[in-house]
Design goal:
- This protein is of the alpha/beta class.
- Helix content is 31%, strand content 23%.
- Helix 1 crosses helix 7.
- 43% of the residues are buried.
């Protein structure tokens, strides 16, 4: 079972710049929700751990996720804040989440003793801003590690969601070593490590608990352990879809946290065969 902790919101897309927009097209968004949706689309068992506003947008998101095959039984609803909206158009991103329901999700709202050795926990960076939800992430990571479940961090950097780019980079760097698996776009390396060279970034990435790094680039996907590398050329899917594919392969193979550093070259190649 994959548990995804984090955000779910409605994105309202405009065909052009926001200051000229007259119409918006709504769609389900939020990296956590999209990852859960992509994992369920592969036939995997997946649940979203989050909080939505007790409002029409929140209930619409829950219904959309349930229709996509995501387990929504652990979703919480609150009247204390609204379900967030994000306006997008012309390369701009305008989030409306001050505060928003998911950021009020506190550690005590996590289902008790939810993880098992056969599970995985995935999360992104959008909810790591200073909030109760950041503390919920820390509690979930501790609970997953205590039960042997492996963890996956898919930052999906969105600077517009943060007080500053420096705050974002510092926080993400603190959480990277806590994850067993990390999935990044190569374009995210410069704001995090002041380098665009994957090999140089690996010195920062393969440390702490991290045993497997997946890097999406313009020409293909690379996957690294501390001993091996695999490569798949061609167009890359979104980070959420890429992470869902790798995680589905790992869980379907019954790969444990302890097995990650022992993956063979053949197994690494298979991880990129989805």
């Amino acid at each position: 079972m994959l548990y995804v902790l984090g955000e779910a919101w409605w994105a309202l897309d405009a065909a052009g710049p926001l200051d000229e927009a007259e119409a918006f097209r709504p769609r389900l968004s939020g990296s956590a929700a999209l990852l859960a949706e992509a994992f369920a689309a592969r036939g995997g068992r997946c649940a979203l751990l989050s909080q939505l506003g007790d409002d029409p947008f929140g209930h619409r998101i829950a219904a959309a996720l349930a229709d996509a095959g995501v387990d929504t039984s652990h979703l919480c609803f609150t009247p204390a804040a609204c379900t967030p909206l994000v306006f997008a158009g012309g390369g701009e991103l305008l989030p409306c989440r001050h505060p928003s329901a998911e950021l009020l999700y506190a550690p005590e709202q996590l289902p008790p003793r939810i993880f098992t050795l056969q599970d995985a926990l995935a999360f992104s960076s959008a909810c790591l801003v200073d909030s109760p939800m950041r503390h919920a992430h820390l509690a979930a990571l501790t609970a997953a590690r205590d039960t042997g479940a492996f963890t996956c961090f898919v930052p999906c950097l969105r600077p517009a969601l943060w007080p500053s780019a420096e705050d974002m980079a510092e926080t993400v760097r603190l959480f990277l070593p806590r994850a067993d698996v990390v999935v990044l776009d190569e374009r995210e390396l410069p704001p995090l490590f002041v380098t665009n060279e994957p090999r140089a970034a690996l010195w920062h990435l393969l440390r702490g608990h991290t045993q497997l790094v997946v890097l999406a680039g313009a020409e293909g996907v690379q996957i690294f352990t501390r001993e091996r590398r695999a490569y798949r050329p061609g167009p890359c899917p979104s980070l959420e879809t890429l992470a869902a594919g790798v995680l589905h392969q790992l869980l379907a193979a019954g790969c444990s946290r302890q097995a990650l550093p022992k993956l063979t070259q053949t197994q690494l190649n298979e991880l990129l065969s989805f």
